[in-house]
Amino acid sequence: xxxxxxxxxxxxxxxxxxxxxxxxxxxxxxxxxxxxxxxxxxxxxxxxxxxxxxxxxxxxxxxxxxxxxxxxxxxxxxxxxxxxxxxxxxxxxxxxxxxxxxxxxx
Length: 106
Fold this sequence. Notes:
Helix 2 (42-59) packs across helix 3 (66-76). The chain contains 5 helices and no strands. The protein is mainly α. It has helices spanning 9-39, 42-59, 66-76, 80-89, 94-105.
């Protein structure tokens, strides 16, 4: 005769941890998939590229860091003030930042 197995506290915790980890993984995957679709929209790409090109002209051939790309993305989403302030933090002159963010908004 087989004795019934007892579920210990550690076994229950392990099961709960696995479930919560799976849920977190699924939510992360959905967020990345939906966010990636927004980032790869053709119109947004062209606008962000124009902004980055403006900044890279000032850098004279240097490649724009990821923070510049993020600021340009904000500019393409009509957040002009955030775009300009983000670019000036990255040591881009205010005139270039304004022109780049204006190019991103087009």
